[in-house]
Amino acid sequence: MGDRTSNPLTPKWGEFMADNLSGTWKFSVTVGDKSGIATFELVEAEDGSLSGTYSGQLGNAQVRGAVDGDDVELWFDWHAGKVMYKGACGDGTMSGTCTYGSVGEGEFRGNKVQ
Fold it and tell me: In this structure, is residue 2 part of a structural domain?
């Protein structure tokens, strides 16, 4: 049996291999007394950058973002200011806080559906 580190395709001991975030995500979002569903179609690049689209109560928008380990940030521009989602991901789920420009702050929780 060879050394585990001799195969470049085998992760080294202690190395964490995070789930790729590419795919469709559906979030339940609450901001103040309002709630809704947000759908994100995301593509994760090798460098951890994210791109894709948002669709929901605000219409449609181009999304940018980044992932670092379990930490995720997504953002897009809206007429009332920048919309930002910050949270943690793992095992096909994501949750955290969101800011909808001047409208206010809230929370989101969701799952990867594809």
Answer: no
